[in-house]
Amino acid sequence: MFIEADTHCHTVASTHGYSTIMEIATCAAERGLKAVAITDHTPGNTDAPHIWHFHNLKKAIPRKIKGVSIIYGAESSIIDYEGNIDFPENECAALDWIIASIHRDMLKAGTVEQITNTYLKVAENPLVDVIGHPGTLSYPFDYEQCIAKFKECGKLVEINESSIKWKGTADNFRKIAEICKKMECPIVVNSDGHYCELTGEVPLSKQLLEEISFPERLILNADWDRLRRFINEKRGRELV
Q1: Per-residue confidence at 1, pLDDT binned at 50, 70, 90?
Q2: Nearest CA-CA partner of 39 in 5, 66, 67
């Protein structure tokens, strides 16, 4: 596999997801993945589960299913140009992995200056781990300025397979990846899968990164041990 952990996976708890955690873990095991993150939308989003879904993750879901490590996570939505997200700090702190993404139903399209300021503020949130699908066409921003800030604040930049399929978006992700390479800002490469058979499937992202000779050492989830250390050190966890 190009990646050993898929850290952006949606279940049926998100209403546009079509698979269970067991189905995702089973597909991951069959494909040789070592870990998956369960990252359903947080309650501010129109298709999100109840907050109890996140409260109960650690109680109900074992750390390993079919030999695959389960990362308890969430995909939060950025809700304003000040970089606030729709998930309270205590809820973020209780999980292993928080993605912060812009979604069209949560934040109106703005100017380059507005979206740049949004991402600069998000970067300062110590509980956010990943900047989700930043290549969206409707939300342009100053890539150089923001990626420098992401690196400074220890944020990972997501190369998102689902988003790359959108018309015109691949060019944005290529620019983002090239700047991450230049600045040595770590990334994660994820399926953003909404169906179990998509787990770990990132062919377009792989091709894009290979074309620009992106260094493997900067792809954090290409090595589960490397990603596990990142989470353990930042969150005080003991993922195995």
Answers
A1: low
A2: 5
